[in-house]
Design brief:
single chain; Rieske Iron-sulfur Protein; binds FE2/S2 (inorganic) cluster
Length: about 150
């Protein structure tokens, strides 16, 4: 049963802190603004049982990208929804990414198969095996899955 698509939300932004220190006799206040990496809430863990997937959209390098997350054997993995063969969305049938046996991710256009853990193409049209889907780093905190892109 397909899981409905839902957009990522709740991008969290940086905070600032004030720090002070003593140098000799003079007390110097130093304002520090440290940017925390932005992260995006995708879903609660219980919304993604093993063998299911969910599409979401998030900005990557200033462009909204359609991505998807899968629960493979109890571990979550997320990728940009773009095949390495031709840059098309992989789910011809909306939100269907797993092969029938649940062991691989499948691009339904020309049947490229990818390892769910690494995103490596292991079978498919010439030139595609050995290439990787673009992985989205994830964090799970307090039962919530966040996408945490490193270079945003
Ligand atoms: S577009 Fe994905 S296998 Fe061809």
């Amino acid at each position: 049963m397909p899981v409905p698509s839902e957009p990522a939300s709740h991008g969290e932004t940086s905070d600032s802190s004030m720090a002070s220190r003593r140098t000799g006799r003079r007390r110097v206040r130093v304002s520090q603004r440290r940017a925390k990496p932005t992260r995006y809430r995708i879903a609660r863990t219980e919304e993604l049982p093993t063998g299911t997937s969910l599409k979401f959209t998030m900005p990557l390098h200033g462009v909204d990208e359609e991505c998807f997350i899968v629960n493979f054997g109890g571990t979550f993995h997320a990728y940009v929804n773009r095949c390495c063969h031709i840059p098309l969305a992989m789910d011809w049938v909306d939100n269907q990414f797993f092969t029938a046996d649940g062991n691989y991710l499948l691009c339904q256009t020309h049947n490229a198969c990818y390892e769910p853990e690494s995103g490596e193409c292991v079978a498919g049209p010439p030139g595609t095996p050995g290439k990787f889907l673009r992985k989205i780093p994830l964090e799970v905190r307090n039962g919530i899955i966040y996408a945490a892109p490193q270079h945003e």
